Amino acid sequence: MLKLPIYLDNNATTPMDPRVLEAMIPYFTEHFGNAASRNHPFGWEAEEAVDYAREQVAKLIGADPKEIIFTSGATEGDNLAIKGVFEMYASKGNHIITAVTEHKAVLDTCKHIEKAGGEVTYLNVKEDGLVDLKELEAAIKPTTVLIAIMYANNEIGVIQPVKEISAIAKKHGVLFFTDATQAVGKIPVDVIKDGIDLLTFSGHKMYGPKGVGALYVRRKNPRVKVTAQMDGGGHERGMRSGTLNVPGIVGFGKACELCRIEMEEDTKRISQLRDKLENSLMQLEEAYVNGNKEHRLPHVANISFKYVEGEGLMMGFNKNIALSSGSACTSASLEPSYVLKALGLGDDLAHSSLRFGLSRFTTEEQIDYTIKAISETVLKLREMSPLWEMYKEGIDLNSIEWAHH
Amino acid sequence: MAYSEKVIDHYSNPKNVGTLDKASKTVGTGLVGAPECGDVMRLQIEVDETTGIIKDAKFKTFGCGSAIASSSLATEWLKGKSVDEAVKIDNMDIVEELNLPPVKIHCSVLAEDAIKAAINDYRKKNGLEELMFEEKGVH
Questions:
Q1: Stated pTM of the model
Q2: pLDDT tens sequence across B7-21
Q3: Is B99 left (phi over 0), alpha (psi -120 to 50) or beta?
Q4: What is the CATH code for A6-11+263-387?
Q5: Which residues of A touch B31 (CB under 8 A)?
Q6: Chain B: residue nearest A382 by CA?
Q7: Are residues A311 and B64, on separate chains, in Cβ contact within 8 Å?
Q8: What string of DSSP letters covers A153-176?
Q9: Fewer CB within 10 A of the terminal residue: chain B, N end or C end?
Protein backbone atom coordinates (compact mmCIF):
# COMPACT_ATOMS: atom_id res chain seq x y z
CA MET A 1 0.00 0.00 0.00
CA LEU A 2 1.23 3.43 -0.93
CA LYS A 3 1.64 5.61 2.13
CA LEU A 4 0.89 9.30 1.80
CA PRO A 5 2.26 11.94 1.92
CA ILE A 6 5.24 11.23 -0.32
CA TYR A 7 8.46 13.04 0.45
CA LEU A 8 10.31 14.40 -2.60
CA ASP A 9 12.02 17.39 -1.01
CA ASN A 10 15.28 15.65 -0.18
CA ASN A 11 17.41 18.64 -1.16
CA ALA A 12 15.91 20.39 1.86
CA THR A 13 16.60 17.52 4.20
CA THR A 14 16.61 13.73 4.09
CA PRO A 15 14.95 11.35 6.49
CA MET A 16 17.48 9.78 8.82
CA ASP A 17 18.41 6.21 8.09
CA PRO A 18 17.24 3.95 10.97
CA ARG A 19 20.73 2.43 11.08
CA VAL A 20 22.10 5.88 11.84
CA LEU A 21 19.69 6.35 14.72
CA GLU A 22 20.64 2.96 16.09
CA ALA A 23 24.30 3.94 16.15
CA MET A 24 23.52 7.22 17.92
CA ILE A 25 21.25 6.08 20.74
CA PRO A 26 23.87 4.80 23.21
CA TYR A 27 25.67 8.13 23.04
CA PHE A 28 22.76 10.05 24.49
CA THR A 29 22.49 8.16 27.76
CA GLU A 30 24.93 5.33 28.32
CA HIS A 31 28.04 6.92 26.77
CA PHE A 32 27.30 10.53 27.51
CA GLY A 33 30.86 11.67 28.19
CA ASN A 34 32.49 14.84 27.00
CA ALA A 35 35.04 13.99 24.32
CA ALA A 36 37.35 16.62 25.81
CA SER A 37 37.45 14.92 29.25
CA ARG A 38 40.89 13.40 28.92
CA ASN A 39 41.19 11.85 32.35
CA HIS A 40 38.40 9.34 32.83
CA PRO A 41 36.71 6.50 30.95
CA PHE A 42 33.57 8.51 30.14
CA GLY A 43 35.63 11.00 28.20
CA TRP A 44 37.75 8.29 26.61
CA GLU A 45 34.68 6.50 25.29
CA ALA A 46 33.30 9.67 23.77
CA GLU A 47 36.63 10.59 22.28
CA GLU A 48 37.00 7.14 20.79
CA ALA A 49 33.56 7.38 19.21
CA VAL A 50 34.38 10.79 17.76
CA ASP A 51 37.70 9.52 16.39
CA TYR A 52 35.95 6.62 14.73
CA ALA A 53 33.33 8.91 13.19
CA ARG A 54 36.06 11.26 12.02
CA GLU A 55 37.58 8.34 10.11
CA GLN A 56 34.22 7.42 8.58
CA VAL A 57 33.64 11.00 7.50
CA ALA A 58 37.16 11.47 6.13
CA LYS A 59 37.04 8.23 4.20
CA LEU A 60 33.92 9.25 2.28
CA ILE A 61 35.70 12.27 0.78
CA GLY A 62 39.20 10.82 0.54
CA ALA A 63 40.58 13.01 3.33
CA ASP A 64 42.80 12.36 6.33
CA PRO A 65 40.82 12.27 9.61
CA LYS A 66 43.00 15.08 10.94
CA GLU A 67 41.62 17.31 8.20
CA ILE A 68 38.02 17.08 9.44
CA ILE A 69 36.61 19.84 11.64
CA PHE A 70 33.21 19.00 13.06
CA THR A 71 30.68 21.83 12.82
CA SER A 72 26.98 22.36 13.40
CA GLY A 73 26.27 22.03 9.68
CA ALA A 74 27.04 23.42 6.26
CA THR A 75 26.10 27.02 7.04
CA GLU A 76 28.66 27.13 9.82
CA GLY A 77 31.18 25.52 7.48
CA ASP A 78 30.52 28.17 4.85
CA ASN A 79 31.02 30.92 7.41
CA LEU A 80 34.13 29.37 8.92
CA ALA A 81 35.76 28.68 5.56
CA ILE A 82 35.10 32.06 3.96
CA LYS A 83 35.52 34.34 6.96
CA GLY A 84 38.31 32.15 8.31
CA VAL A 85 40.36 32.30 5.10
CA PHE A 86 39.63 36.01 4.63
CA GLU A 87 41.00 36.79 8.08
CA MET A 88 43.87 34.30 8.05
CA TYR A 89 45.19 35.41 4.66
CA ALA A 90 44.55 39.13 5.08
CA SER A 91 48.21 39.90 4.47
CA LYS A 92 48.02 38.23 1.06
CA GLY A 93 44.89 39.93 -0.21
CA ASN A 94 41.20 40.61 0.31
CA HIS A 95 39.49 39.41 -2.87
CA ILE A 96 37.11 36.46 -3.07
CA ILE A 97 35.45 34.98 -6.16
CA THR A 98 32.11 33.23 -5.95
CA ALA A 99 29.05 32.73 -8.18
CA VAL A 100 25.53 34.19 -8.14
CA THR A 101 23.90 30.76 -7.83
CA GLU A 102 25.58 29.89 -4.53
CA HIS A 103 23.55 29.09 -1.44
CA LYS A 104 22.58 32.05 0.72
CA ALA A 105 24.99 30.84 3.40
CA VAL A 106 27.82 31.62 0.98
CA LEU A 107 26.33 34.73 -0.59
CA ASP A 108 25.41 36.35 2.71
CA THR A 109 28.81 35.50 4.16
CA CYS A 110 30.37 37.20 1.14
CA LYS A 111 28.19 40.25 1.78
CA HIS A 112 29.60 40.28 5.29
CA ILE A 113 33.12 40.13 3.85
CA GLU A 114 32.36 43.17 1.68
CA LYS A 115 31.20 45.09 4.74
CA ALA A 116 34.41 44.07 6.47
CA GLY A 117 36.45 45.71 3.70
CA GLY A 118 36.84 42.74 1.39
CA GLU A 119 36.13 42.65 -2.31
CA VAL A 120 33.93 39.97 -3.83
CA THR A 121 33.37 39.04 -7.47
CA TYR A 122 30.06 37.30 -8.14
CA LEU A 123 30.38 35.31 -11.36
CA ASN A 124 27.33 34.85 -13.53
CA VAL A 125 26.60 31.35 -14.73
CA LYS A 126 25.84 30.06 -18.20
CA GLU A 127 22.33 29.11 -19.28
CA ASP A 128 22.92 25.58 -18.06
CA GLY A 129 23.92 26.76 -14.60
CA LEU A 130 27.64 26.07 -14.89
CA VAL A 131 30.33 28.68 -14.30
CA ASP A 132 32.35 29.85 -17.26
CA LEU A 133 35.94 28.78 -16.58
CA LYS A 134 37.42 31.56 -18.71
CA GLU A 135 35.43 34.15 -16.80
CA LEU A 136 36.55 32.59 -13.56
CA GLU A 137 40.22 32.73 -14.51
CA ALA A 138 39.87 36.27 -15.81
CA ALA A 139 38.43 37.35 -12.47
CA ILE A 140 41.53 36.33 -10.54
CA LYS A 141 43.66 39.26 -9.32
CA PRO A 142 46.90 39.46 -7.38
CA THR A 143 44.77 40.10 -4.29
CA THR A 144 42.54 37.03 -4.74
CA VAL A 145 42.72 34.68 -1.77
CA LEU A 146 39.77 32.37 -2.31
CA ILE A 147 37.48 30.88 -4.93
CA ALA A 148 34.20 29.69 -3.39
CA ILE A 149 32.14 27.66 -5.85
CA MET A 150 29.64 25.01 -4.81
CA TYR A 151 30.06 21.39 -5.88
CA ALA A 152 26.43 20.91 -6.90
CA ASN A 153 23.51 23.29 -6.83
CA ASN A 154 20.69 22.81 -4.35
CA GLU A 155 17.91 23.98 -6.67
CA ILE A 156 18.79 22.53 -10.04
CA GLY A 157 21.38 19.90 -9.11
CA VAL A 158 23.99 20.91 -11.69
CA ILE A 159 27.52 19.77 -10.87
CA GLN A 160 30.21 22.41 -11.36
CA PRO A 161 33.48 21.52 -13.12
CA VAL A 162 35.26 21.20 -9.79
CA LYS A 163 38.48 19.63 -11.10
CA GLU A 164 38.92 22.39 -13.67
CA ILE A 165 38.17 25.07 -11.11
CA SER A 166 40.71 23.67 -8.67
CA ALA A 167 43.33 23.49 -11.42
CA ILE A 168 42.81 27.17 -12.17
CA ALA A 169 42.97 28.02 -8.48
CA LYS A 170 46.20 26.07 -8.06
CA LYS A 171 47.77 27.67 -11.11
CA HIS A 172 47.22 31.10 -9.59
CA GLY A 173 48.05 30.15 -6.02
CA VAL A 174 44.50 30.77 -4.83
CA LEU A 175 42.65 28.55 -2.34
CA PHE A 176 39.55 26.70 -3.49
CA PHE A 177 36.58 26.17 -1.17
CA THR A 178 33.50 24.23 -2.20
CA ASP A 179 30.13 23.86 -0.51
CA ALA A 180 29.50 20.20 -1.28
CA THR A 181 26.38 19.82 0.85
CA GLN A 182 24.24 18.45 -1.97
CA ALA A 183 26.97 16.32 -3.52
CA VAL A 184 28.69 14.41 -0.74
CA GLY A 185 27.13 11.01 -0.21
CA LYS A 186 25.29 11.20 -3.54
CA ILE A 187 28.16 11.25 -6.01
CA PRO A 188 31.86 10.43 -5.58
CA VAL A 189 33.68 13.40 -4.04
CA ASP A 190 37.42 13.11 -3.47
CA VAL A 191 39.33 16.06 -2.09
CA ILE A 192 42.63 14.79 -3.50
CA LYS A 193 41.45 13.96 -7.02
CA ASP A 194 39.25 17.05 -7.11
CA GLY A 195 42.02 19.29 -5.77
CA ILE A 196 39.88 20.85 -3.07
CA ASP A 197 41.40 22.94 -0.26
CA LEU A 198 38.31 23.42 1.87
CA LEU A 199 34.95 21.66 1.68
CA THR A 200 31.82 21.80 3.78
CA PHE A 201 28.94 19.40 4.06
CA SER A 202 26.15 18.43 6.39
CA GLY A 203 24.73 15.30 8.01
CA HIS A 204 21.05 15.87 7.43
CA LYS A 205 21.30 16.02 3.65
CA MET A 206 22.67 12.48 3.54
CA TYR A 207 20.43 10.48 5.87
CA GLY A 208 22.25 11.64 8.99
CA PRO A 209 21.10 13.84 11.87
CA LYS A 210 20.53 17.59 11.76
CA GLY A 211 22.84 19.94 13.59
CA VAL A 212 26.11 18.30 12.60
CA GLY A 213 28.42 18.76 9.66
CA ALA A 214 32.06 18.94 8.75
CA LEU A 215 34.56 21.31 7.25
CA TYR A 216 37.49 19.71 5.49
CA VAL A 217 40.62 21.82 5.78
CA ARG A 218 43.61 20.61 3.77
CA ARG A 219 46.79 19.94 5.76
CA LYS A 220 49.30 19.32 2.99
CA ASN A 221 50.09 20.92 -0.39
CA PRO A 222 49.21 23.49 0.73
CA ARG A 223 48.65 23.53 4.48
CA VAL A 224 45.50 25.61 4.88
CA LYS A 225 44.54 27.48 8.01
CA VAL A 226 41.39 29.32 8.97
CA THR A 227 40.86 31.82 11.75
CA ALA A 228 38.40 30.46 14.28
CA GLN A 229 35.00 32.16 14.28
CA MET A 230 34.01 30.72 17.64
CA ASP A 231 36.37 31.22 20.54
CA GLY A 232 36.55 28.95 23.52
CA GLY A 233 38.20 25.74 24.61
CA GLY A 234 40.24 25.28 21.46
CA HIS A 235 38.48 22.15 20.23
CA GLU A 236 38.98 20.87 16.69
CA ARG A 237 42.61 21.93 16.47
CA GLY A 238 41.68 25.41 17.63
CA MET A 239 39.54 26.08 14.59
CA ARG A 240 36.14 25.44 16.15
CA SER A 241 35.61 25.62 19.87
CA GLY A 242 32.60 24.09 21.54
CA THR A 243 31.86 20.75 23.19
CA LEU A 244 31.50 18.14 20.51
CA ASN A 245 28.02 16.88 19.69
CA VAL A 246 29.01 13.26 20.24
CA PRO A 247 25.75 11.49 19.32
CA GLY A 248 25.34 13.72 16.28
CA ILE A 249 28.91 13.08 15.20
CA VAL A 250 28.50 9.32 15.67
CA GLY A 251 25.37 9.42 13.51
CA PHE A 252 27.04 11.59 10.92
CA GLY A 253 29.93 9.11 10.75
CA LYS A 254 27.56 6.21 10.32
CA ALA A 255 25.65 8.06 7.60
CA CYS A 256 28.93 8.70 5.75
CA GLU A 257 29.89 5.05 5.98
CA LEU A 258 26.51 3.92 4.63
CA CYS A 259 26.73 6.38 1.75
CA ARG A 260 30.24 5.22 0.90
CA ILE A 261 29.21 1.57 0.81
CA GLU A 262 25.80 1.98 -0.82
CA MET A 263 26.25 4.99 -3.06
CA GLU A 264 26.82 3.10 -6.27
CA GLU A 265 23.72 0.96 -5.98
CA ASP A 266 21.58 3.74 -4.58
CA THR A 267 22.58 6.00 -7.45
CA LYS A 268 21.76 3.42 -10.06
CA ARG A 269 18.26 2.91 -8.69
CA ILE A 270 17.52 6.53 -7.82
CA SER A 271 18.68 7.90 -11.17
CA GLN A 272 16.42 5.44 -12.96
CA LEU A 273 13.47 6.67 -10.94
CA ARG A 274 14.45 10.29 -11.53
CA ASP A 275 14.67 9.66 -15.27
CA LYS A 276 11.30 7.95 -15.29
CA LEU A 277 9.76 10.90 -13.43
CA GLU A 278 11.40 13.46 -15.66
CA ASN A 279 10.70 11.69 -18.95
CA SER A 280 7.07 11.17 -18.05
CA LEU A 281 6.53 14.78 -17.00
CA MET A 282 8.30 16.00 -20.11
CA GLN A 283 5.54 14.36 -22.11
CA LEU A 284 3.43 17.33 -21.09
CA GLU A 285 3.49 20.19 -23.56
CA GLU A 286 5.65 23.20 -22.76
CA ALA A 287 7.64 21.56 -19.97
CA TYR A 288 11.30 22.46 -19.58
CA VAL A 289 14.16 20.94 -17.58
CA ASN A 290 16.17 23.66 -15.84
CA GLY A 291 19.94 23.32 -15.75
CA ASN A 292 22.51 21.10 -17.41
CA LYS A 293 21.15 17.58 -17.76
CA GLU A 294 24.48 15.86 -18.27
CA HIS A 295 26.38 17.30 -15.33
CA ARG A 296 23.70 16.85 -12.76
CA LEU A 297 23.06 15.06 -9.46
CA PRO A 298 21.35 11.72 -10.06
CA HIS A 299 18.46 12.38 -7.70
CA VAL A 300 17.44 15.90 -8.70
CA ALA A 301 15.12 17.29 -11.37
CA ASN A 302 13.93 20.87 -11.73
CA ILE A 303 11.16 21.32 -14.26
CA SER A 304 9.14 24.35 -15.34
CA PHE A 305 5.59 23.87 -16.54
CA LYS A 306 4.93 26.94 -18.58
CA TYR A 307 1.66 28.85 -18.12
CA VAL A 308 0.93 27.44 -14.67
CA GLU A 309 2.18 29.03 -11.48
CA GLY A 310 4.28 26.94 -9.11
CA GLU A 311 2.46 27.54 -5.88
CA GLY A 312 -0.93 27.11 -7.48
CA LEU A 313 0.40 23.90 -8.97
CA MET A 314 1.68 22.57 -5.67
CA MET A 315 -1.62 23.30 -4.00
CA GLY A 316 -3.13 20.65 -6.24
CA PHE A 317 -1.18 17.90 -4.50
CA ASN A 318 0.81 19.24 -1.58
CA LYS A 319 -1.25 17.35 0.92
CA ASN A 320 0.08 14.19 -0.68
CA ILE A 321 3.41 15.12 -2.25
CA ALA A 322 6.06 17.25 -0.60
CA LEU A 323 8.35 19.17 -2.90
CA SER A 324 9.41 22.74 -3.47
CA SER A 325 8.90 25.42 -6.09
CA GLY A 326 10.97 28.25 -7.48
CA SER A 327 7.87 30.38 -7.34
CA ALA A 328 7.97 33.54 -5.32
CA CYS A 329 4.82 32.68 -3.50
CA THR A 330 6.46 29.87 -1.55
CA SER A 331 8.89 32.20 0.11
CA ALA A 332 8.54 35.26 2.27
CA SER A 333 9.98 37.45 -0.46
CA LEU A 334 7.92 37.90 -3.57
CA GLU A 335 10.87 37.31 -5.87
CA PRO A 336 11.11 34.02 -7.74
CA SER A 337 14.19 31.84 -7.40
CA TYR A 338 17.41 33.79 -7.95
CA VAL A 339 19.08 30.61 -9.14
CA LEU A 340 16.59 30.08 -11.96
CA LYS A 341 16.75 33.75 -12.88
CA ALA A 342 20.54 33.47 -13.10
CA LEU A 343 20.08 30.85 -15.82
CA GLY A 344 18.33 33.53 -17.84
CA LEU A 345 14.86 32.13 -17.25
CA GLY A 346 12.11 34.70 -17.46
CA ASP A 347 10.21 35.30 -14.25
CA ASP A 348 7.26 33.47 -15.75
CA LEU A 349 9.22 30.23 -16.13
CA ALA A 350 10.87 30.69 -12.75
CA HIS A 351 7.41 31.03 -11.22
CA SER A 352 6.37 27.81 -12.92
CA SER A 353 9.08 25.51 -11.62
CA LEU A 354 9.05 22.49 -9.35
CA ARG A 355 12.09 20.91 -7.72
CA PHE A 356 12.13 17.18 -7.19
CA GLY A 357 14.66 15.59 -4.85
CA LEU A 358 14.60 11.81 -4.59
CA SER A 359 16.24 9.69 -1.93
CA ARG A 360 17.37 6.24 -0.91
CA PHE A 361 13.83 5.69 0.36
CA THR A 362 11.94 6.77 -2.78
CA THR A 363 9.97 3.94 -4.39
CA GLU A 364 8.73 3.37 -7.91
CA GLU A 365 5.16 3.36 -6.62
CA GLN A 366 5.69 6.85 -5.21
CA ILE A 367 7.11 8.06 -8.51
CA ASP A 368 4.17 6.63 -10.45
CA TYR A 369 1.73 8.37 -8.12
CA THR A 370 3.65 11.63 -8.46
CA ILE A 371 3.71 11.51 -12.25
CA LYS A 372 -0.05 11.01 -12.34
CA ALA A 373 -0.91 13.66 -9.74
CA ILE A 374 1.31 16.33 -11.23
CA SER A 375 0.27 15.68 -14.83
CA GLU A 376 -3.39 15.92 -13.87
CA THR A 377 -2.89 19.12 -11.91
CA VAL A 378 -0.91 20.77 -14.71
CA LEU A 379 -3.66 19.95 -17.20
CA LYS A 380 -6.38 21.17 -14.84
CA LEU A 381 -4.63 24.46 -14.12
CA ARG A 382 -3.89 25.08 -17.77
CA GLU A 383 -7.59 24.83 -18.47
CA MET A 384 -7.90 27.61 -15.91
CA SER A 385 -4.95 29.67 -17.18
CA PRO A 386 -5.54 32.71 -19.39
CA LEU A 387 -1.91 32.46 -20.52
CA TRP A 388 -2.39 28.91 -21.73
CA GLU A 389 -5.47 29.99 -23.69
CA MET A 390 -3.52 32.82 -25.32
CA TYR A 391 -0.65 30.50 -26.11
CA LYS A 392 -3.06 28.05 -27.73
CA GLU A 393 -4.58 30.89 -29.77
CA GLY A 394 -1.12 31.76 -31.00
CA ILE A 395 -0.92 35.07 -29.15
CA ASP A 396 2.62 36.14 -28.33
CA LEU A 397 2.56 36.92 -24.62
CA ASN A 398 5.45 39.32 -25.05
CA SER A 399 3.31 41.43 -27.36
CA ILE A 400 0.90 42.21 -24.53
CA GLU A 401 1.43 45.25 -22.41
CA TRP A 402 1.13 43.84 -18.93
CA ALA A 403 0.27 46.05 -16.05
CA HIS A 404 3.25 45.45 -13.76
CA HIS A 405 2.44 45.82 -10.15
CA MET B 1 1.49 28.32 4.60
CA ALA B 2 -1.84 26.76 5.39
CA TYR B 3 -4.77 27.82 3.27
CA SER B 4 -8.22 28.53 4.64
CA GLU B 5 -10.88 25.99 3.85
CA LYS B 6 -12.67 28.46 1.61
CA VAL B 7 -9.56 28.99 -0.49
CA ILE B 8 -9.09 25.25 -0.80
CA ASP B 9 -12.74 24.83 -1.78
CA HIS B 10 -12.58 27.48 -4.52
CA TYR B 11 -9.28 26.04 -5.74
CA SER B 12 -10.59 22.48 -5.87
CA ASN B 13 -13.99 23.40 -7.30
CA PRO B 14 -13.55 26.73 -9.00
CA LYS B 15 -16.77 28.44 -10.01
CA ASN B 16 -17.24 29.94 -13.45
CA VAL B 17 -14.00 29.01 -15.17
CA GLY B 18 -14.24 29.85 -18.83
CA THR B 19 -14.33 32.35 -21.62
CA LEU B 20 -17.01 34.70 -22.91
CA ASP B 21 -16.97 36.21 -26.38
CA LYS B 22 -14.80 39.24 -25.84
CA ALA B 23 -15.90 40.75 -29.17
CA SER B 24 -19.51 40.92 -28.01
CA LYS B 25 -20.82 44.36 -27.09
CA THR B 26 -22.48 42.99 -23.97
CA VAL B 27 -19.25 41.46 -22.64
CA GLY B 28 -16.63 43.33 -20.65
CA THR B 29 -13.16 41.84 -20.26
CA GLY B 30 -10.53 42.73 -17.66
CA LEU B 31 -7.01 41.33 -17.92
CA VAL B 32 -4.76 42.31 -15.03
CA GLY B 33 -1.45 41.26 -13.51
CA ALA B 34 1.65 40.09 -15.33
CA PRO B 35 3.29 36.71 -15.90
CA GLU B 36 6.53 38.04 -14.38
CA CYS B 37 4.72 38.78 -11.15
CA GLY B 38 3.34 35.28 -10.94
CA ASP B 39 -0.30 36.15 -11.37
CA VAL B 40 -2.55 37.09 -14.26
CA MET B 41 -6.32 37.28 -13.98
CA ARG B 42 -8.84 37.54 -16.76
CA LEU B 43 -12.33 38.31 -15.61
CA GLN B 44 -15.31 38.73 -17.92
CA ILE B 45 -18.85 39.93 -17.35
CA GLU B 46 -21.85 39.63 -19.60
CA VAL B 47 -24.46 42.32 -19.04
CA ASP B 48 -28.17 42.07 -19.81
CA GLU B 49 -28.79 45.07 -22.04
CA THR B 50 -32.30 45.78 -20.87
CA THR B 51 -31.84 45.37 -17.10
CA GLY B 52 -28.17 46.31 -16.72
CA ILE B 53 -27.70 43.23 -14.57
CA ILE B 54 -24.61 41.04 -14.88
CA LYS B 55 -26.09 37.78 -16.05
CA ASP B 56 -22.87 35.83 -16.43
CA ALA B 57 -19.26 36.07 -15.26
CA LYS B 58 -16.25 33.93 -16.13
CA PHE B 59 -12.61 33.89 -15.16
CA LYS B 60 -9.29 32.34 -15.98
CA THR B 61 -6.36 32.85 -13.63
CA PHE B 62 -2.66 32.06 -13.68
CA GLY B 63 -1.49 32.25 -10.10
CA CYS B 64 -1.41 30.77 -6.66
CA GLY B 65 -4.37 29.21 -4.89
CA SER B 66 -5.38 32.51 -3.32
CA ALA B 67 -5.44 34.23 -6.70
CA ILE B 68 -7.58 31.47 -8.17
CA ALA B 69 -9.93 31.57 -5.18
CA SER B 70 -10.20 35.38 -5.28
CA SER B 71 -11.23 35.38 -8.91
CA SER B 72 -13.59 32.45 -8.49
CA LEU B 73 -15.29 34.25 -5.60
CA ALA B 74 -15.44 37.50 -7.56
CA THR B 75 -17.33 35.86 -10.43
CA GLU B 76 -19.83 34.43 -7.95
CA TRP B 77 -20.43 37.83 -6.40
CA LEU B 78 -20.73 39.55 -9.75
CA LYS B 79 -23.56 37.43 -11.06
CA GLY B 80 -26.92 39.03 -10.42
CA LYS B 81 -25.47 42.41 -9.49
CA SER B 82 -26.00 45.55 -11.51
CA VAL B 83 -22.88 47.08 -13.00
CA ASP B 84 -23.13 49.96 -10.56
CA GLU B 85 -23.29 47.59 -7.61
CA ALA B 86 -20.40 45.56 -8.96
CA VAL B 87 -18.12 48.60 -8.91
CA LYS B 88 -18.51 48.70 -5.15
CA ILE B 89 -16.94 45.27 -4.51
CA ASP B 90 -13.94 45.98 -2.31
CA ASN B 91 -10.86 43.83 -2.10
CA MET B 92 -11.13 43.71 1.70
CA ASP B 93 -14.49 41.94 1.35
CA ILE B 94 -12.64 39.21 -0.54
CA VAL B 95 -9.87 39.12 2.07
CA GLU B 96 -12.45 38.67 4.79
CA GLU B 97 -14.52 36.07 3.00
CA LEU B 98 -11.49 33.94 2.10
CA ASN B 99 -9.46 34.59 5.23
CA LEU B 100 -6.46 35.65 3.19
CA PRO B 101 -3.24 36.24 5.13
CA PRO B 102 -1.44 39.61 4.69
CA VAL B 103 1.01 38.20 2.15
CA LYS B 104 -1.93 37.26 -0.10
CA ILE B 105 -3.82 40.54 0.04
CA HIS B 106 -2.42 41.43 -3.38
CA CYS B 107 -4.50 38.57 -4.83
CA SER B 108 -7.70 40.28 -3.68
CA VAL B 109 -6.51 43.62 -5.02
CA LEU B 110 -5.91 41.98 -8.34
CA ALA B 111 -9.45 40.59 -8.33
CA GLU B 112 -10.87 44.04 -7.58
CA ASP B 113 -8.77 45.51 -10.36
CA ALA B 114 -10.03 42.82 -12.73
CA ILE B 115 -13.65 43.64 -11.89
CA LYS B 116 -13.07 47.34 -12.53
CA ALA B 117 -11.19 46.66 -15.75
CA ALA B 118 -14.01 44.44 -17.00
CA ILE B 119 -16.62 47.09 -16.15
CA ASN B 120 -14.64 49.80 -17.90
CA ASP B 121 -14.20 47.61 -20.94
CA TYR B 122 -17.96 47.14 -21.01
CA ARG B 123 -18.60 50.87 -20.55
CA LYS B 124 -16.17 51.77 -23.30
CA LYS B 125 -17.80 49.39 -25.74
CA ASN B 126 -21.15 50.95 -24.99
CA GLY B 127 -20.08 54.54 -25.43
CA LEU B 128 -19.91 55.31 -21.72
CA GLU B 129 -17.11 57.19 -20.05
CA GLU B 130 -14.54 55.02 -18.28
CA LEU B 131 -14.60 55.27 -14.51
CA MET B 132 -11.53 56.53 -12.71
CA PHE B 133 -10.39 54.54 -9.72
CA GLU B 134 -7.99 55.36 -7.00
CA GLU B 135 -4.84 53.28 -6.83
CA LYS B 136 -4.99 50.80 -3.99
CA GLY B 137 -1.25 50.85 -3.64
CA VAL B 138 -1.07 47.47 -1.96
CA HIS B 139 0.92 45.81 -4.73
A1: 0.93
A2: 999 999 999 999 999
A3: left
A4: 3.90.1150.10
A5: 386, 400
A6: B62
A7: yes
A8: -TTT-BBP-HHHHHHHHHHTT-EE
A9: N
